[in-house]
Amino acid sequence: MQPSINPNPLQFVSFENKKMRQHLFFLILLALASTGCQSHRKPSLTGSRQISIDSTIAPDSTVTAYIAPLRDSVDAIMNEVIGTSPEEMFADKPESPLSSFVADLLREAATKELKELGKEQFPVITVINIRGLRAPLPKGPIKVKHIYALMPFENQMVTLKMSGEDIKKLYQHIGESNGDGLSGGSFSFADQSVKNPKIHNQQVKDEAFYYVVTSDYLATGGDHYTIFAKATEKYESSQKIRDLIIQHIRDIEKQGSLIPVPENKRIEMQ
């Protein structure tokens, strides 16, 4: 049971004697009066001195000793090898192996989560902003710190239910933006319009519904994805995208496989 909270701050402390309560009220009134008297005074700068913070300043031994075990723990976590990439992967427009890889793993994670919730009746696509992928994945061993560099934000996975009509508008925005990360769908963009919009290799139907998986940043209109405001349903996952990337790469490593490098075409700019 939660304790009740008294809105009167003066009653947080019990005073057994009336004189003590009177003294307290007198002190409060005095403090308020003092504050009121000083409210018209404006602060002024009487002097300044520049202090350089560089290598000439010796570290404080007490602080260094205090943070050493914390730093060592963080280093151990960040330097853990979680997988292996057969080549260096960059994020680039209109699409790239890295953006496709991240979009694919998010679609897989969302499909699993939707199934657990009993909401798997609609086809699922994923859209991520390439500008949100801030670093490449290097060739060779992949460490936790590489994923933090790739995805430094605390973005969460969000699933939106959208009509086929709005999916076409979504594709239009992606085309006008010269591409973005896409999984589960495809289209061509020519003469400033979308051609042949598909989801799971089927033509997008205006009256049908689909699930779009993205980040909470894009879901709230980031990078001008205002079309997401037309979603008829919104499910916010508790899972962070960065954690999903780390777990997915770990799962690949457990299977004894290398990180896949997607090569299939999803967005064709003409």
Describe the structure.
This protein has 270 residues and is α+β, with helices and mostly antiparallel strands. It has a single domain (78-269), classed as 5'-nucleotidase,  domain 2 (Alpha-Beta Complex). Helices cover 36% and strands 21% of the residues. The protein is built from seven helices and eleven strands. It has helices at 18-38, 61-78, 97-116, 144-150, 164-176, 216-219, 241-254; strands at residues 81-85, 124-128, 140-143, 156-163, 181-183, 185-190, 193-199, 202-203, 209-215, 233-240, 267-269. The strands form three sheets. Strands 5-2-9-4-10 form a five-stranded mixed β-sheet. It has a four-stranded mixed β-sheet with strand order 8-7-6-11. Helix 3 crosses helix 7. The longest helix is centred in the first third of the chain and has 21 residues, at 18-38.
Q: What does the secondary structure layout of this molecule look like, with pairings?
A:
Elements: H1 18-38, H2 61-78, E1 81-85, H3 97-116, E2 124-128, E3 140-143, H4 144-150, E4 156-163, H5 164-176, E5 181-183, E6 185-190, E7 193-199, E8 202-203, E9 209-215, H6 216-219, E10 233-240, H7 241-254, E11 267-269
Parallel strand pairs: 2-9, 6-11
Antiparallel strand pairs: 1-3, 2-5, 4-9, 4-10, 6-7, 7-8
Helix pairs in contact: 3-7
DSSP strand (E) fraction?
A: 15-25%
* Largest sheet composition: 5 strands, mixed
Number of domains: 1
Fourth-tier CATH superfamily name: 5'-Nucleotidase, C-terminal domain
Q: Provide mean pLDDT, rounded.
A: 88
CATH topology: 5'-nucleotidase,  domain 2
**Total strands:** 11
Low-confidence stretches: 1-18
